[in-house]
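Quick one: examine the sequence and fold tokens given here and explain what the tokens say about the fold. Here goes:
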Amino acid sequence: MALEKIQLIKLDQIDRPVKISREIIDPEKIRELAESIRESTLLQPVLLRPVNGRFEMVAGDRRYLAHKLLGLKEIKAIVRELDDRETVVLRGIENLQRENLSPSEEGKVYLALKEEAGLSMVQISKKTGKAQATVARYINFARFPEEIRRAVDRKIISLNTLETLQEIEDPEAFDYHFKMAASNGITAEVARLWVDDYQKTKIGTYYTEGGGVPPPSIEVEQKPIFITCEVCLGPCEIKVVRNLTVCPTCRAKVKNQNVKTA
């Protein structure tokens, strides 16, 4: 393949992508990149495609933003004729190479490769180097509502925990358990206990004295769930717990004090 010509393109002739892959673009990272470009110039040109007499950003959006921050008028670019499918694929691969992608951002890349570029799971796996199971997992996650995805992105609950709770197919029951999980930051192990308890409750509705078809929405019994208090080491209902962070030394002192007063 022949080397592609690097051109200088005016910034005011470039349009950013309609769909920005990153949900949060860190201004500090853009500033750091701008300082690097100021000192060493732009080492890697951006990739553009011609659209209606202008240019659309394909790869290099952060470099473009850094140039604008520096007040520069032009940027080094490679201009390539690309259709929509090729553009989605190139953007997706570039985005996956970035640091600190949130689960939502990663999931959206795979979802775009599947739905917009029309790639199969096998093709996505080959182009990204990710296992098909990983791709399927993040596509599934990308389809959750934003409120639920945000809880995982902010590490309030883990993706494993969410996937366990997803086994609760009744929407009302799932919503109840998810909100409890997000409020208390439970582990996947605790989520498994909740799901197992839900399944037992559900089975009970199928085998009532009257029999027949169960109601469309299953009412979840709000059973108390207890955890160990970090101070007195006694049982405490999880819904009234407040977080307590202590170092190992202080925790040992509390334990020793409890032993003396027992």
